[in-house]
Write a structure and sequence with these properties.
single chain, 133 residues, mainly alpha
């Protein structure tokens, strides 16, 4: 279980950093128009299916935010599981230690998820003026 929590925290961190880096460094190419890429290149079917997301940047932001929301729900479930393990450990010190470790790693995972959310949304807003409005 400990390796799974460590992997969850590491994957959340890597997701946030990689998404932020892609958007931060990729936004310059989009803003300069060197490749002829327009912000509004989403097909009409996708616009209708997503409830009106007509910008590829807004669509990507929405997808990332939903994914981070799912990770947040998963992290809360891990916090509940860790709390249950800690409370039901009784006099078993190894069970209490396991519960504490789960709670610690879940808290770190939640912090990473929140930082990823802030990083992605801030970098998209700063790199592409008018995104998300």
């Amino acid at each position: 279980m400990r390796n799974w929590i460590r992997s969850f925290a590491l994957m959340s961190l890597l997701l946030g950093v990689s998404v932020g880096a892609v958007h931060f460094f990729g936004a310059d190419a989009l803003a300069q128009g060197v490749f002829g890429v327009d912000r509004n290149i989403v097909p009409e079917e996708v616009v209708r299916a997503t409830g009106g997301e007509d910008s590829i940047i807004d669509l990507i932001r929405t997808i990332i935010n939903y994914f981070l929301g799912f990770l947040g729900v998963l992290a809360i479930a891990i916090v509940i599981y860790g709390g249950f393990m800690y409370v039901t450990a009784g006099v078993n010190e190894s069970g209490a230690e396991t519960g504490k470790n789960i709670l610690t790693y879940a808290a770190i995972g939640i912090m990473i998820i929140l930082l990823s959310f802030v990083l992605v949304n801030t970098l998209l807003q700063a790199a592409v003026p008018g995104a998300g409005q």
